[in-house]
Design goal:
The chain is mainly alpha-helical. It has a single domain, classed as Na+/H+ antiporter like fold (Up-down Bundle). It has 14 helices and no strands. The chain is globular, with a radius of gyration of 18 Å.
Length: about 300
């Protein structure tokens, strides 16, 4: 347990140093909201699909294919669990604020925070299963998340569900994995190059969000505390218990818990802007959850590694 905690904590410290660079650059005026917006798009549309494809670029393995199915079912279960917890415990008098709290409770930053940790601690196998979690995350985001944050009159766009970069990256990687096709060298080198940006760039973005916290008085917000406790401790620990009781062990269990224990999704801010919700609250929730996750993730992940 102590060794697992030390391993995870060291990786968190490495990420924290990169986050600190983003924080300082933001405070020094080197990063603007527009820069972060465009950088986030670049990460989502280019970097994330590349690391997913790279992790799937391996000879076909029937056992790993079976584990993909397990990871898919576990990811669905984790999102359903979060939805149930958010509907039971997260309440606010203002509907516009309530949906932001609930969205932040349900969806984790499994791409920006999850993949770098999975890569650092577990290698490509961890990213392989983390990519499945991201695919399920995208489906839930553009269905339940869309309905939750939008008005009931908004229509779910099948195009957004199927043609977003997360799902497309997994689809392309899955084809490469199942067919064992060899990616040409002239394509593989750029893919590896962009994939290598998966850790530093997202951490710089996270650092920017942390710089937006101007006062810790926000911690007096009861709903913010409830949301943060559920997102960072209650939900991932419940998920760990359920996954463990389901008989899932080893690297697969650890990879799933890394995704589940990540802080609130950056999409919380994006969707709040898209549907004219409380954007300031969304930024605060994401920033605070990232800050506190630097302490909660080592605890939850090391516990997962200890029982795996």
């Amino acid at each position: 347990m102590i060794q697992s905690f030390t391993t995870v904590f060291q990786q968190i410290v490495i990420l924290f140093i990169m986050i600190a660079v983003g924080f300082v650059c933001s405070r020094r005026g080197l990063l603007s909201p527009l820069t972060i917006k465009e950088l986030s798009k670049f990460i989502i549309y280019i970097v994330t699909p590349c690391i997913v494809v790279e992790s799937f670029n391996r000879p076909f393995d029937r056992a790993m294919l079976g584990n993909m199915g397990i990871a898919c079912a576990a990811a669905i279960g984790a999102h359903v669990l979060n939805i149930i917890l958010s509907r039971i415990f997260v309440r606010d008098k203002e509907h516009s604020r309530q949906v932001v709290y609930q969205f932040a409770t349900i969806f984790s930053n499994c791409g920006f925070m999850g993949l770098p940790l999975q890569q650092a601690i577990l290698g490509n196998d961890g990213v392989f299963y983390g990519a499945v979690f991201i695919a399920i995350f995208n489906v839930f985001t553009w269905t339940y998340g869309f309905i939750l944050m939008g008005s009931h009159g908004d229509r779910i766009k099948l195009k957004e569900i199927l043609l977003n970069p997360g799902v497309l990256g997994v689809a392309a990687g899955f084809i490469v994995f199942v067919t064992s096709v060899r990616i040409p060298h002239v394509l593989l080198v750029p893919i590896k190059g962009f994939a290598a940006l998966n850790t530093p760039l997202p951490m710089v973005v996270v650092g920017y969000y942390l710089s937006q916290i101007t006062s810790l008085k926000v911690l007096k917000d009861k709903n913010l505390v409830i949301t943060t406790v559920i997102k960072l401790l209650a939900a991932p620990l419940l998920a760990l218990l359920i996954i463990y009781l389901a008989g899932i062990r080893g690297l697969l269990l650890t990879s799933l818990i890394i995704s589940a224990s990540a802080p609130s999704a950056a999409n919380t801010v994006m969707f709040s802007v898209l549907f004219n919700r409380d954007t300031k609250l969304a930024v605060t929730l994401v920033s605070i959850s990232v800050l506190i996750s630097l302490f909660t993730m080592p605890l939850v992940i090391s516990l997962a590694m200890a029982v795996a």
